[in-house]
Amino acid sequence: MIGICCGGLRPALASLCGVLALAGEVGAGDWPQWRGPEGTGSSAETGLPVIWSESDGIAWKLPLPEWRTSTPAIWVEAVFVSTQKADALLLSRMSKSTGRIDWTRTAVTAKTERMELRKKGPGERKAQRFHETHNMASPSPVTDGERAIVHFGNGELASYDFQGNRQWTRNLQDDHGTYTIWWGHANSPVLHGDLVISACMQDSLEDLGGSSPSYLVAHDKRTGKEKWKTMRKTRAQAEQCDSYVTPLLCPTARGTELIVMGGNQLDAYDPSTGKQVWHLPGLNGNRVITGPTLRKDLVYATIGMRGALVAVRPGAEGELRQSAVAWRCEKSTPDSPSPVCASDLLFMVSDNGIATCLDAESGELRWRERIPGDYRSSPIAAEGRVYFLNMNGLTTVVAASSRFEKLAENRIDALALSVRGTESKRASGDDVTIASPAVSDGRIFLRGRRALYAIGRPFGGK
Length: 462
Prior knowledge:
The chain has 2 helices and 34 strands. It is mostly beta strands. The strands form 8 sheets. A 5-stranded mixed β-sheet has the order 1-28-29-30-31, with no helix packed on it. The chain has a 5-stranded mixed β-sheet with strand order 15-16-17-18-22. Strands 2-34-33-32 form a 4-stranded antiparallel β-sheet, with no helix packed on it. The longest helix is centred in the first third of the chain and has 11 residues.
């Protein structure tokens, strides 16, 4: 089992986190969910590549149908990816060794509604529309070694066994009402014991006299039966209610907490029952894309719309005061990429390429440097290195050190999509790297919109 979380969790707590987050024994080569075994972007893998290019260091490259921005879920030899082809929402399994597709299943078909990026009018707020940089296949699959569960932006939640047989399906919009998140649902599900937990954080419509509350909901991972549902009330309005963030399972002395960020609020729930444990309101900004991470006894979350990054101690009860914030960083924070910890340091990159290293305990600045490109992908940390993947296929590798040291810049064939551009402005053959990397058995898996790369030595040493 991987017993590391941002390089710093005490072994007992890290083990608890791994056991409770997933049903099976997480292997050293597994990347079973969004941002890895513990949802933090950190890996205990060794032998990862530092230098590669399109012509060197690529074990395999697999073209995929149409486009998507979700991260692969990997268990032993199986690699699961969600994708969208026209109106078909797909789940595929492929071989980690060869890159060959074992099977593809159509979970559902659904039309993707879009509109230009601008402030929505009252009528437009009553249903989701998708932003140009993602689609209904943005949520990442999750697996426990027996099944792969995928959640699509139309609300479809479906479970498949490793042979591709559908075990169950249900639709959260059918069960709980139309999604009203402004720019398209993208929260990935997480597993806790026998439960698969989903988050829906959306425009409440309260200022319009309507009711579209946010909620967390858990289903039995074996049957799809609903086990609990918790309404998530915040003081946010309109787009401030929206959060595209995946919940994070966090070990504490009292047990595992489910950490959720969005609606101008950071809070925690008992993942077994859905009961809220504590909440910290007053983190006022706007919609939230950047997910939280953790190290030892601190949770790090970013206030929406490039607000401050705050460090908060979990394990409390009730409503917390602002004094619960141990420290905050106001400068060059990300809007999209999640932060990552390595050893005693926290690393983040702003959407326009300002990389920052902070002392994880105190928040003191260690360095701040510009690296090439624009960023949506979240960095990963492994083997004393941090990997930053920009939108046009360039990975900047730096030492996970309090002194800035660039180790390599590695490019694959992907061309950038303008931050303010539209899908129609992109040449049909261009690829874009928005999905966050995954790590498994000494390889780094990078996913463009049109291909999946396995970077590293071929298995068997050949």
